[in-house]
Amino acid sequence: MIAGVIGASNEAIHTIEEAKKQGVRVIAFDGNPDAEGLKAADKAVVVDITNEEATIEAVRQEKVDFLLTAPIGRYLTTTGAVNDALHLPGITKRMAQVCTDKYLFHETLNSAGLRNINCYATDAERFDSDRTGAEGAVSNKDIEESKARNEALAKSIISGEMSLQYPAILKPRYGSGSRGIHIVSTNQDLLYALREVAGISYVVEECLEGEEYGVDASVIDGRTTIVLLRHKKNTPMPNRQAVAYHSVQRSEKVYACIEDYVRRVVACVGLDECLLHADVLMTKDGPFMIEMSPRPSGHNLHNLFTPLCTDVDMAAEYVKRRLGRPFSFVPKDVRTMMIHYFDYTGVVVKVPSHAKLGVLLWKCGGHAMWTKSQIKLIDWKCRLRFGDTLHTVTDGHSIMDRGYYILEGDNEQQLEDCARSIRGLFF
Description:
It is a single chain. The protein is an alpha+beta fold. It folds into 4 domains: about 1-90, Rossmann fold (3-Layer(aba) Sandwich); about 120-205, ATP-grasp fold, A domain (Dna Ligase, domain 1, 2-Layer Sandwich), CATH 3.30.1490.20; about 210-335, 2-Layer Sandwich (D-amino Acid Aminotransferase, Chain A, domain 1); about 335-425, Aldehyde Oxidoreductase, domain 3, CATH 3.90.1170. The protein is built from 14 helices and 18 strands. Strands 13-12-9-10-11-14-18-16 form an 8-stranded antiparallel β-sheet. Strands 3-2-1-4 form a 4-stranded parallel β-sheet, with helices on both faces. Residues about 130-135 have low confidence and may be disordered.
């Protein structure tokens, strides 16, 4: 069997390796000849994956039997387009479009009563340089026209013609990673922010409060299976960048509530035959879907944290599904674990040795003879060095290269207390 993967960043390597372990020949497609995933595959094909027709033809020539999905942004639509054109199993282009276009996603869910807020799109798609790729730069005239339309949108909201409750959030209509986000709390903020984003497709929507959760799941034969629910620890607004995740036990009340909601959203969007990543906000009125995508999660989650917590490797099980072999996405147990990234600010004055880490974990775990509490260091990848100046975390790019550590313990509070103590080892 031959599998293809469209988008061969380093986050595709795990999926490629799992397919190869099962005897599948993997061909990776990417426009960057230096993409790390190209080196991991059996064959590398350099092709502009923003060009659907070119990618379809490249995959056709390689006689691929099915496509794998790896963490990727808006050009997940190319995977769907290839599946449609070559009649391959997996996501369709329509599925990918709904999930990568934030406004279309909102409209789809809102019409079914699953996302009850006000959300508006700026009229800038034909000027969006990210969308048009190499078709040309945005001219000053285009920018001025877009700015005028954005100002008209702001005035409609300010006048009450269009309803919007503050605080509100402006975010790029396409893309991910907490980049380019604006929080607005007044009419003046809104007018200024919409002027600032002229020429780029944005959405403006009401901002809700609550605890945020990440979801790793599969959708096979129309059935949604939650593999792992993760409680997020985020930076403050406006970015809401995750700096840690805690596994959530199935026995917790929030689990069943989010599970039911995710299944209804999946049915509404029409997803099937895919892996799934979603971000859900648990508000006072119930769960609210921030975003969802028919592909695995990034940031060392689907490839590392989720398998460690559940003993379910989603990439491996998906390959088994495509090969017609027995598979299961249902975890037998969920371990109490935390993955924490180094979300520090300041100058690093020391880097802890494993010996110091061991002593700290012993203390944090309760080292008296009559306690059974224990904290285990499961993994540690620290790229911080003495003298490094660490700036405020604003998005995934500003934190992921620093590394991470994974702990196992008794409960979330215990692991959070330990994380605070670990920070003290660096400063």
